[in-house]
């Protein structure tokens, strides 16, 4: 009997192999004796191993699936790329340049010779990229390494055996995904991380309007509890609307004057005394050292004012305040008996009276009669009547501030947006709801944050969208109620237009993609749900009511949306943008919402815990989403961006292509730089078109006008010569007659030679002849000189005419070039419109309009740049031709001078 042996045939199969993963699977099957095999390729196949470890199998959508027996698998090796050029190109386009790194080859067969190769390509590297914000600096925010990954496994994996193996189970992955380590925002942003030592005007301040109200502005209730709740919610600017009280003691009260609200008992002196006594050292009574109340002195910082309460109220003139304060201390300050007292209890609260009050309501502001004691407590927040941005800039008094109703502030934004931003760099501004908001509704604060307004006062009792944006934004920086404005909204040397549509200098525009995958515990009722995703920021960044998932019916517990990503393609100013995610049921009722400022958002797969309408945390409801954050890259600059972000990878890709070409027998010297060649060819064509023949004197002398002038001069010379010949013949004849007459009486030649009359006559004749020759010679030279001058004038004129023809020809070339360029640009615009109209990835009309606007804007910049370059190039050609013409005329003048000098000297 053989000894019993317990054989454990079953091997444990890792959970990853049991649950499987999606791969691209391809193999080359050879049929018969064919040298080239048939390619079988399946995309996104789910590859698994059975629970016993017998088979590995895969199946893709629409296919029957395939199975391999693991007992026939003899090797699984890294790498493996197809030899088929078409398949290689397709895989490379899907997996970029990481194909070799992402591939595995499964070798199987019944012997060692006939081996079948099954190749699988995974996408895990791509998943890792999407889980990280590509905008992060790799030194300050390094990639996760093996050590960090093991820390995550150790922290979140409940199974100790898997921890020892460095593996993460499904349970551990869920724990990690729902932990603080995978929070949707950087956790350091939830603490005080901003510089708190800058001027107070450089911060947004969480502010409240009519803090004491619990409901409507007209007829609403007032409560002290609201002050507690508002302060606990992070508000740092509260409002006390003080009126004279009732009864004999006239204890001051807090109420909304002339608005039929209930009262909170509170008079100026008593108010100031209460503040002084109750607040004690927390009250800022005097200006801080180093920050006197003087022009051009900035406001102190939040750190300087830490644990201090600043009173905002009208203040008396310093001299008047000093005098009245002394009189008050002596008991000699007269009371104003003419001031009208308001008795809120005498106002009825009927609906009719409320409507009358709304129609006639005007904000009259605080009383002008300020008690000197109360006035002495006011320092860094002195409200004044706004007199214009130019006056404020000229005075530069930082402790003066102004309050604006929302409609007034919108008017300033409409007409003087940049001036409003500059004002807020220096001084405080407070924006409050307009008087017609009787229901205590709020305005959108984002438009005023965009202008740098510090105190955007909202009705905290109303949990509407503006309030949600406010509370979501001020969750950052430790919830301290102060947020540092972006750099360009603080510096005096920067100009910022809150309505700008192009990226701000020094700020990198972002691209944000949000894919809503599923929801958990959204409702305990069996209702349909859907999700809306909005973006708020600059007007050009704000996208509302466009991105919405399909409705998942009758499932409020764990709906699966699996929507295509909602892409916010271009976010010009990420520092001011916030992402809003809201869940609604089938009746339009909000089930939860979350506001996430974009500058602290984390990329990757994240669970977003939802908040109530009042921004209070909800215990269970959450959304599972995938966020992708990228740097915005305009169309056509993707390759350039890749090359700039990773030059080595870009060059290595080129080197790989060169190596592949070398393997095919193509030398590197045979590879032409097509872009460079095209540019050179375009330049050569343009130079050939612009080539202008040099104007020479021979070209001028061949001109008809010049030849006609020469013929004219020749005729003039012939006439002159004939006339002079006649003159010479006549003189000669007269002299011969005179000699013959004198010599008739003479007998011999010797006597004639000695005859004084003859000698005198000959002498006179010689002189006459000489004078005639001199005269004729002078006439000839003068005629020649005048002809030369005339010819030179004609030559110069012809030169200038030929130059004008060349200039006209060049301008014609420029005109043709500009016309062709404009036609090309118009064609691009038309093609762009068609491309956007036919783009199936754009979900709706608004998205298409936005995409078209963006493309047109990019095209416009490109067109303007092309026209500028063309204008610069054409001006250079004009200047070049002008210099050539000037030199030609100079050479012509010099040649004429030389000819004239040689001829007449």
From TrEMBL:
E.C. designation(s): 3.1.4.11
Pfam families documented for this protein: C2, PH_14, PI-PLC-X, PI-PLC-Y
Enzyme category, top tier: hydrolase
Cofactor(s) demanded: Ca(2+)
UniProt keyword annotation of Metal-binding present: yes
SMART domains on file: C2, PLCXc, PLCYc
Cofactor binding note from Swiss-Prot or TrEMBL: Binds 1 Ca(2+) ion per subunit.
Domain of life: Eukaryota
Cross-referenced InterPro entries: C2_dom, C2_domain_sf, EF-hand-dom_pair, PI-PLC_fam, PLC-beta, PLC-beta_C_sf, PLC-beta_PH, PLC-like_Pdiesterase_TIM-brl
Residue ranges the record marks as coiled coil: none
Binding-site list for Ca(2+): 341
Catalyses which reaction(s): a 1,2-diacyl-sn-glycero-3-phospho-(1D-myo-inositol-4,5-bisphosphate) + H2O = 1D-myo-inositol 1,4,5-trisphosphate + a 1,2-diacyl-sn-glycerol + H(+); an N-(acyl)-sphingosylphosphoethanolamine = an N-(acyl)-sphingosyl-1,3-cyclic phosphate + ethanolamine
UniProt cross-references to CDD domains, sorted A to Z: C2_PLC_like, PH_PLC_beta, PI-PLCc_beta
GO BP term, example: phosphatidylinositol metabolic process
Classification via SUPFAM superfamilies: C-terminal domain of PLC-beta, C2 domain (Calcium/lipid-binding domain, CaLB), EF-hand, PH domain-like, PLC-like phosphodiesterases
Keywords from the named record: Calcium, Disulfide bond, Hydrolase, Lipid degradation, Lipid metabolism, Lyase, Magnesium, Metal-binding, Transducer
Name of the molecule in the record: Phosphoinositide phospholipase C
Organism of this sequence: Sarcoptes scabiei
């Amino acid at each position: 009997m053989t000894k019993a042996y317990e054989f454990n045939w079953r091997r444990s199969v890792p959970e990853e192999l049991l649950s499987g993963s999606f791969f691209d699977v391809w193999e080359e099957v050879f049929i018969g004796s064919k040298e080239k095999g048939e390619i079988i390729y399946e995309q996104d196949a789910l590859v698994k191993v059975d629970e016993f470890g017998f088979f590995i199998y895969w199946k893709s959508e629409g296919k029957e699936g395939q199975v391999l027996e693991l007992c026939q698998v003899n090797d699984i090796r890294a790498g493996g790329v197809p030899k088929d050029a078409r398949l290689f190109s397709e895989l490379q386009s899907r997996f970029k340049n990481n194909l070799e790194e992402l591939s595995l080859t499964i070798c199987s067969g019944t012997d060692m010779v006939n081996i079948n190769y099954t190749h699988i390509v995974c996408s895990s590297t791509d998943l890792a990229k999407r889980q990280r914000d590509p905008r992060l600096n790799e030194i300050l925010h390094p990639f996760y390494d093996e050590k960090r990954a093991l820390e995550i496994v150790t922290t979140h994996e409940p199974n100790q055996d898997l921890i020892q193996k460095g593996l993460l189970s499904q349970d551990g992955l869920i724990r990690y995904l729902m932990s603080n380590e995978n929070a949707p925002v950087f956790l350091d942003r939830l603490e005080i991380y901003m510089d708190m030592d800058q001027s107070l005007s450089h911060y947004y301040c969480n502010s409240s309007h009519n803090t004491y109200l619990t409901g409507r502005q007209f007829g609403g209730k007032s409560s002290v509890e609201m002050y507690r709740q508002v302060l606990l919610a992070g508000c740092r600017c509260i409002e006390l609307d003080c009126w004279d009280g009732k009864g004999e003691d006239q204890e001051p009260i807090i109420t909304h004057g002339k608005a039929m609200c209930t009262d909170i008992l509170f008079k100026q002196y008593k108010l100031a005394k209460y503040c002084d006594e109750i607040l004690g050292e927390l009250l800022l009574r005097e200006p801080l050292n180093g920050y006197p109340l003087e022009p051009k002195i900035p406001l102190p910082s939040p750190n300087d004012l830490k644990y201090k309460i600043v009173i905002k109220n009208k203040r008396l003139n310093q001299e008047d305040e000093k005098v009245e304060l002394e009189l008050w201390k002596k008991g000699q300050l007269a009371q104003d008996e003419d001031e009208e007292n308001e008795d809120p209890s005498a106002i009825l609260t009927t609906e009719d009276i409320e409507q009358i009050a709304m129609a006639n309501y005007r904000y009259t502001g605080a009383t002008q009669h300020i008690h000197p004691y109360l006035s002495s407590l006011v320092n860094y927040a002195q409200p004044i009547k706004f007199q214009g941005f130019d006056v404020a800039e000229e005075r530069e008094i930082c402790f003066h501030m102004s309050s604006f109703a929302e409609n007034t502030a919108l008017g300033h934004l409409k007409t003087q947006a940049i001036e409003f931003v500059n004002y807020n760099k220096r001084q405080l501004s407070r924006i409050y709801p307009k008087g017609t908001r009787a229901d205590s509704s709020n305005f959108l604060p984002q438009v005023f944050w965009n202008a740098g307004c510090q105190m955007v006062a909202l009705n905290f009792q109303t949990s509407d969208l503006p309030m949600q944006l406010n509370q979501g934004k001020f969750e950052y920086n430790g919830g301290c109620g102060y947020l540092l404005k972006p750099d360009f909204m603080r510096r005096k040397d920067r100009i910022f237009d809150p309505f700008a549509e192009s990226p701000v200098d020094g700020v990198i525009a972002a691209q944000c993609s949000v894919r809503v995958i599923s929801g958990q515990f959204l409702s305990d009722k069996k209702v349909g749900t859907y999700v809306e995703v909005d973006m708020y920021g600059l007007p050009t960044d704000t996208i509302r009511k466009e991105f919405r998932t399909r409705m998942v019916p009758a499932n409020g517990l764990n709906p699966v949306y699996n929507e295509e990503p909602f892409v916010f393609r271009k976010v010009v100013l990420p520092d001011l943008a916030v992402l809003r995610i809201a869940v609604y049921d089938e009746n339009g009722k909000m089930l939860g919402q979350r506001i996430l400022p974009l500058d602290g958002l984390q990329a990757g797969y994240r669970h977003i815990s939802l908040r109530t309408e009042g921004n209070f945390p909800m215990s269970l409801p959450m959304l599972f989403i995938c966020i992708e954050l990228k740097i915005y890259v305009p169309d056509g600059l993707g390759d350039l961006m890749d090359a700039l972000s990773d030059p080595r990878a870009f060059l290595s890709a080129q080197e790989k292509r060169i190596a592949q070409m070398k393997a095919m027998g193509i030398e590197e010297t045979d590879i032409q730089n097509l872009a460079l060649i095209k540019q050179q060819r375009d330049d050569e064509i343009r130079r050939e078109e612009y080539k202008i023949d040099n104007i020479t004197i021979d070209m001028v002398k061949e001109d008809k006008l010049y030849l006609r002038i020469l013929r004219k001069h020749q005729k003039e010379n012939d006439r002159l010569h004939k006339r002079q010949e006649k003159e010479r013949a006549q003189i000669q004849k007269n002299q011969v007659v005179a000699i013959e007459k004198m010599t008739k009486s003479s007998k011999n030649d010797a006597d004639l030679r000695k005859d004084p009359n003859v000698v005198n006559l000959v002498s006179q004749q010689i002189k006459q002849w000489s004078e005639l020759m001199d005269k004729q010679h002078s006439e000839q030279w003068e005629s020649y000189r005048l002809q030369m001058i005339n010819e030179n004038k004609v030559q110069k004129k012809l030169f200038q005419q030929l130059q004008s023809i060349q200039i006209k020809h060049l301008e014609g070339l420029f005109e043709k070039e500009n016309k062709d360029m404009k036609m090309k640009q118009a064609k691009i615009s038309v093609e762009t419109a068609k491309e956007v109209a036919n783009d199936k990835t754009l979900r709706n009309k608004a998205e298409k309009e936005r995409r078209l606007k963006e493309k047109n804007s990019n095209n416009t910049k490109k067109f303007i740049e092309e026209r500028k370059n063309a204008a610069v190039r054409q001006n250079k050609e004009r200047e070049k031709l002008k210099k050539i013409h000037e030199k030609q005329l100079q050479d012509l003048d010099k040649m004429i001078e030389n000819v004239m000098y040689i001829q007449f000297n």
